[in-house]
Amino acid sequence: MYKILKINDKVAMAIAMGSGLHAVGTAKAMEIGETEGAMSSLTIAISGIMTVLIAPIL
After folding, report:
1. Which residues cross the membrane (predicted)?
2. pLDDT of residue 40
3. Domain spans of the chain?
4. Are 19 and 41 in contact (CB under 8 A)?
5. What is the pTM assigned to this prediction?
6. Is 23:13 a contact under the CB 8 Å cutoff?
7. Is the pLDDT at 34 greater than 90, yes or no?
């Protein structure tokens, strides 16, 4: 998908993996590199916090 959309930024790819693929994406991001793993982990944590805050409102 990244090749089709021509996304080359490693941080953008890691954020997409963390938010869309959750734990599996974070594990793959860790394999790719340290920065990618950190960004993916941060994204999964922020997504969880946002879900906890927004779900009761909806």
Report:
1. 39-57
2. 93
3. 2-54
4. no
5. 0.80
6. no
7. yes
Amino acid at 21: L
Taking only the tens place, the pLDDT of each residue in 3-18 is 899 989 989 998 888 8
Tokens 């941080």 belong to residue:
11
Query: What gap in Å lies between CA 23 and CA 40, rounded to an integer?
Result: 9
Read out DSSP for 1-58? -HHHHT---HHHHHHHHHHHSHHHHHHHHHHH-HHHHHHHHHHHHHHHHHHHHHTTT-
Rounded to whole angstroms, how far apart are CA atoms 41 and 6? 23
Whole-angstrom CA distances from 18 to 3, 33, 47, 56, 57 are: 18, 14, 9, 23, 24
